[in-house]
């Protein structure tokens, strides 16, 4: 039996058991129940006593695709707009809009918008529980719109901290928390593909608004550029918020802002460490490429193009990451693509001194740099389960506040200390490699969990024995059957291949 069993509470198409012993049709729960009835006596079900809500099977499509399109559009008009901050940064520095403001202060504004989006997540989760997903999204739309309007009247640097940093971050956070769990609720087999498509919206938005913001600033001026972006975000995100439908009632989502019991699970701590290191690398990469281009002798226009190409890479890379995650394994894909980004940084970016080579790195690095955002929902569901997903993600967002706030300032301080970007590039590359190594450990744990569950189900007689192993040997005791499929050693699980 090579099918993966990610938990009795999560039965999807690639995790069904007992279908070989039954008619082969219907959902996985029916297959197990029929298999348990063999011999005339029903066997005790492993989930006996658990709430019925834990066996909900998502439709894996249908209106879910409308929701995916809406989430992708919201991502484009939140995270994508945030990616265009590099254009505003270049304008601030070159035109001395805010006297006495330093580059480090501007760097903190970019990081602050991301960290505030994450730090507001418990409030957004509580709002979702009390008032629903749609209300949470609309609150975020109002905050985001207000941030652009307020920024258009900014005359001091602290005005930008409040508007483009904190207020925009809160708006982005409410919309992110309200929308990030939607795709996993609607999909099973194609969950990672759906999440990848949704995440690609941020790359497309970053590409579009990196170019559009520069054009608007040049043609209508900075204040009206802000106001125009605010109006666009309000109209588009409001429409998407009204179209999105969640499945919280069907799956029985806990919607707890904090479930401290999750900290007792080592695999969850591994996911947190994976996200922490990934963000230390990602934020430096996201905001540094245009400035790096200018440091090596390119023009501001070339720098903005490189930033736009990087966002294009994110848009192109995230759907394939999601697609192959469903076929090759979500943890396999996430860890390998994260490691690949680190390799690109250390082998291409560090030697990129010409426009052509930097464009190559931007497109290649962009395809894998945002792997975390493409997989965070599916791999958290894989490891923690759909019922505790909202609580797990709320804790995750808070843990990511520190790296997202200080990553870019750390990168700029390394540049200031060494006089070149070499140290910052090494820092970025090794953060990605470290994140990949930690997730590989989580993968090894997951394989062990699957092996244990397969052994338990075989002991209960709920799955057929493997051909050539149990069949033809004769009747076996429960202990013998369990021993045949015992858990491998951790070292073996580190090097073995399995779709997980």
From TrEMBL:
<feature type="transmembrane region" description="Helical">
    <location>
        <begin position="421"/>
        <end position="442"/>
    </location>
</feature>
<dbReference type="InterPro" id="IPR050327">
    <property type="entry name" value="Proton-linked_MCT"/>
</dbReference>
<feature type="transmembrane region" description="Helical">
    <location>
        <begin position="161"/>
        <end position="181"/>
    </location>
</feature>
<feature type="region of interest" description="Disordered">
    <location>
        <begin position="1"/>
        <end position="49"/>
    </location>
</feature>
<feature type="compositionally biased region" description="Basic and acidic residues">
    <location>
        <begin position="40"/>
        <end position="49"/>
    </location>
</feature>
<dbReference type="GO" id="GO:0022857">
    <property type="term" value="F:transmembrane transporter activity"/>
</dbReference>
<dbReference type="InterPro" id="IPR011701">
    <property type="entry name" value="MFS"/>
</dbReference>
<keyword id="KW-0472">Membrane</keyword>
<keyword id="KW-0812">Transmembrane</keyword>
<dbReference type="InterPro" id="IPR036259">
    <property type="entry name" value="MFS_trans_sf"/>
</dbReference>
<feature type="transmembrane region" description="Helical">
    <location>
        <begin position="334"/>
        <end position="352"/>
    </location>
</feature>
<dbReference type="Pfam" id="PF07690">
    <property type="entry name" value="MFS_1"/>
</dbReference>
<feature type="transmembrane region" description="Helical">
    <location>
        <begin position="193"/>
        <end position="212"/>
    </location>
</feature>
<feature type="transmembrane region" description="Helical">
    <location>
        <begin position="136"/>
        <end position="155"/>
    </location>
</feature>
<feature type="transmembrane region" description="Helical">
    <location>
        <begin position="358"/>
        <end position="376"/>
    </location>
</feature>
<feature type="transmembrane region" description="Helical">
    <location>
        <begin position="103"/>
        <end position="124"/>
    </location>
</feature>
<dbReference type="GO" id="GO:0016020">
    <property type="term" value="C:membrane"/>
</dbReference>
<dbReference type="InterPro" id="IPR020846">
    <property type="entry name" value="MFS_dom"/>
</dbReference>
<protein>
    <recommendedName>
        <fullName>Major facilitator superfamily (MFS) profile domain-containing protein</fullName>
    </recommendedName>
</protein>
<feature type="domain" description="Major facilitator superfamily (MFS) profile">
    <location>
        <begin position="267"/>
        <end position="500"/>
    </location>
</feature>
<comment type="similarity">
    <text>Belongs to the major facilitator superfamily. Monocarboxylate porter (TC 2.A.1.13) family.</text>
</comment>
<feature type="transmembrane region" description="Helical">
    <location>
        <begin position="268"/>
        <end position="289"/>
    </location>
</feature>
<keyword id="KW-1133">Transmembrane helix</keyword>
<feature type="transmembrane region" description="Helical">
    <location>
        <begin position="383"/>
        <end position="401"/>
    </location>
</feature>
């Amino acid at each position: 039996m090579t099918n993966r069993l990610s938990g009795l509470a999560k039965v999807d198409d690639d995790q069904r058991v007992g279908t070989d012993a039954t008619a082969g049709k219907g959902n996985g729960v029916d297959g197990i129940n029929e298999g348990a009835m063999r011999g005339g006596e029903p066997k005790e079900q492993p989930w006996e006593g658990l709430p019925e809500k834990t066996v909900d099977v998502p439709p894996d499509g249908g209106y879910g695709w409308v929701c995916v399109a809406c989430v992708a559009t919201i991502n484009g008009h939140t995270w994508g707009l945030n990616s265009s901050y590099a254009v505003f940064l270049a304008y601030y520095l070159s035109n001395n809009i805010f006297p006495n403001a330093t580059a480090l202060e501007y760097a903190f504004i970019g990081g602050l918008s991301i960290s505030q989006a994450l730090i507001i997540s418990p409030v957004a989760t509580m709002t979702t529980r009390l008032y629903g997903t749609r209300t949470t999204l609309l609150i975020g739309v109002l905050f985001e719109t207000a941030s652009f309007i307020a920024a258009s009247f900014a005359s001091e640097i602290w005005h930008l901290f409040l508007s483009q940093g904190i207020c925009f971050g809160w708006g982005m956070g409410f919309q992110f928390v309200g929308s990030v769990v939607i795709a996993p609720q609607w999909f099973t087999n194609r969950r990672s593909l759906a999440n990848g498509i949704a995440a690609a919206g941020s790359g497309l938005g970053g590409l579009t608004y990196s170019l559009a913001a520069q054009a608007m600033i040049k043609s209508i001026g900075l204040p009206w550029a802000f106001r125009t972006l605010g109006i666009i975000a309000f109209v588009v995100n409001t429409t998407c918020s009204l179209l999105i439908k969640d499945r919280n009632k069907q799956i029985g989502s806990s919607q707890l802002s904090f479930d401290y019991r999750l900290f007792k699970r080592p695999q969850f701590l591994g996911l947190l460490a994976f996200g922490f290191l990934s963000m230390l690398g990602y934020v430096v990469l996201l905001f540094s490429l245009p400035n790096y281009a200018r440091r090596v002798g390119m023009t501001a226009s070339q720098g903005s193009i490189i930033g736009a190409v990087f966002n294009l890479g994110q848009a192109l890379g995230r759907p394939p990451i999601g697609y192959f995650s469903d076929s090759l394994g979500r943890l396999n894909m996430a860890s390998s693509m994260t490691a690949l980004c680190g390799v690109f940084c250390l082998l291409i970016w560090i030697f990129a001194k010409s426009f052509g080579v930097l464009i190559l790195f931007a497109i290649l690095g962009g395809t894998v740099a945002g792997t975390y955002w493409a997989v965070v929902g599916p791999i958290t569901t894989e490891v923690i389960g759909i019922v505790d997903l909202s609580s797990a993600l709320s804790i995750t967002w808070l843990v990511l506040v520190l790296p997202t706030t200080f990553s870019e300032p750390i990168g700029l301080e390394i540049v200031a200390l060494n006089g070149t970007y070499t140290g910052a590039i090494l820092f970025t590359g090794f953060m990605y490699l470290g994140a990949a190594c930690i997730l590989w450990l989580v993968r090894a744990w997951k394989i062990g969990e699957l092996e244990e569950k397969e052994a338990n189900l075989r002991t209960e007689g709920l799955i057929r024995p493997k051909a050539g192993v149990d069949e033809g040997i004769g009747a076996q005791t429960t202990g013998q059957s369990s021993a045949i499929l015992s858990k491998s050693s951790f070292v073996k699980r580190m090097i073995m291949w399995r779709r997980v």
